[in-house]
Design brief:
By secondary structure, this protein is mostly helical. 70% of the residues lie in helices and 4% in strands.
C-alpha cells in the first residue's frame, strides 16, 4: 500500500510538472506570435529572424532534454523511466494547446494547422494530430506504470518494435512530407489523416502485444 501511494504521489507531481511546463512553452509562443503572427498563424509562413531561429532550435532540444531528465529522475528501472517520460510528454503536449486556447483563444478548431517542431525541418499538421498522439502516449505511459507497480512485465519483443517503428515512420512522414513546400513559401496540401489513423492503430497493437505476457515478473 505504501509503495502504491508513493507511486501515485510521484505520478501526481510529474503530471503537475507537465501542466506547468506546458504553460511555459505556450507563453514563449505567445511572444513569438506577437512578433511574427500578430494576426494569427497563416500560410505561407513568415520566416523568423536568424537569431530567434537559433534560440528556438536550442529551446526545442532543451525541452526534450528536460522531459527525458524527468523520466530518468522519477523512475527506478529502465521501463519505469520510459513510462515517466511518456506521461509528462503527452500531458505537456495536450496542455500546451489548452494554454494557447486560454491565452490566445487559439486554435479555433481542432483542424487548425500548427508548426509542431523545427528539428531537423518544420513539422506541420492540424493540431488534432499531435493531440491524439499525445493522448495515446500519456495513456500508454500510465498503463505501463500501473503494470510495473503490480509486478507485471513489460517486455516488448520484435513484433512490437516493428509495429512501433512502422507507426513512427508513418506519423513523422505525415508531419514532414510538406516541409520542402513550406520552406519554399507554399501552403500545405490536405493532411493525410489516414496515415495518422494507421499509425495510432499500429501503436495500439504493438503496445497490446508488449503487455500480453501478464504472468511474468519483470
Amino acid at each position: 500500500m505504501e509503495a502504491a501511494n508513493s507511486s501515485l504521489c510521484k505520478l501526481f507531481w510529474v503530471s503537475l510538472f507537465a501542466v506547468a511546463f506546458a504553460f511555459i512553452e505556450s507563453s514563449i509562443v505567445v511572444y513569438l506570435r506577437g512578433l511574427y503572427y500578430s494576426e494569427g498563424l497563416t500560410f505561407p509562413l513568415k520566416m523568423i529572424g536568424e537569431k530567434h531561429l537559433a534560440v528556438e532550435l536550442v529551446r526545442e532540444a532543451a525541452t526534450i532534454v528536460v522531459l527525458v531528465a524527468v523520466g530518468v529522475i522519477a523512475g527506478r528501472k529502465a521501463w519505469e523511466r520510459v513510462a515517466y517520460f511518456l506521461v509528462p510528454f503527452g500531458l505537456w503536449d495536450i496542455f500546451y494547446y489548452v494554454w494557447l486556447k486560454v491565452t490566445l483563444d487559439w486554435p479555433q478548431t481542432l483542424t487548425d494547422w500548427d508548426v509542431l517542431f523545427l528539428i531537423p525541418v518544420p513539422w506541420i499538421a492540424p493540431m488534432i494530430a499531435p493531440v491524439l498522439l499525445a493522448l495515446l502516449i500519456s495513456v500508454c505511459g500510465m498503463v505501463m506504470l500501473a503494470r510495473l507497480n503490480k509486478g507485471l512485465s513489460f517486455k516488448p519483443q520484435l513484433p512490437s518494435w516493428l509495429l512501433a517503428s512502422l507507426a513512427t515512420v508513418l506519423v513523422l512522414y505525415s508531419f514532414m512530407y510538406e516541409s520542402p513546400a513550406i520552406l519554399r513559401g507554399g501552403t500545405p496540401s490536405p493532411y493525410p489523416y489516414v496515415l495518422l489513423i494507421v499509425s495510432l492503430v499500429l501503436y495500439l497493437i504493438g503496445f497490446f502485444v508488449a503487455c500480453r505476457p501478464v504472468n511474468r515478473k519483470h
